[in-house]
């Protein structure tokens, strides 16, 4: 009889612990997917949007605190985001500041990539500085690309698009790209780092933009958004 009571007590205790764990996990999931840094800490906040993010309600995005939007524009030597033009028009109509992002491919010539970006993104002094997304590594290129060649080609790309835009490019560096090439210490440009919920420290120097939540759920879109803040 005593053993039966002990077993029941253990089962009840296990069930209570399990329930608490499920509640904690649910709370954590909800918090991460709805969290944005406080405006008092980072007054200027915005989003990054591309065609993969689906349709955005730009007025709603502005209402929840976005004052700017970086739009995915081009990638590699030939790819172009099909939603860029519409997103540009709609975000401007909502009176957000706009910037454009190019996804860099270390396997493709810098000149062709710069030409692709410049074809998609017209020179416009009202736009924010362009951003260069650096995530793809050269390790899997069909033709071997050395680290020195990656750095050299990047400088060629930057020189060409900065001549086109008249503004210094922001380097949007992923953790894996920085670990492989240590770019933050080699190229003197403002940085855009990524780390959901936790402050990013992997570049070894201060950042200008931070993707604080790469999976924000909000009324601005049926899909998760990439929420970005500007350093003070």
Report on the structure:
By secondary structure, the chain is of the alpha/beta class. It folds into two domains: 1-34; 38-230, TIM Barrel (Alpha-Beta Barrel), CATH 3.20.20.80. The chain has an eight-stranded mixed β-barrel, surrounded by four helices. Mean pLDDT is 90; it is low at 15-30. It has helices at 2-34, 58-63, 84-93, 110-120, 147-165, 175-181; strands spanning 45-49, 68-75, 79-80, 97-103, 131-134, 170-173, 191-194, 209-218, 221-230. Helix 4 (110-120) runs parallel beside helix 5. It is globular. It contains six helices and nine strands.
Blueprint of the fold:
Layout: H1 2-34, E1 45-49, H2 58-63, E2 68-75, E3 79-80, H3 84-93, E4 97-103, H4 110-120, E5 131-134, H5 147-165, E6 170-173, H6 175-181, E7 191-194, E8 209-218, E9 221-230
Parallel strand pairs: 1-2, 2-4, 4-5, 5-6, 6-7, 7-8
Antiparallel strand pairs: 1-9, 2-3, 8-9
Helix pairs in contact: 4-5
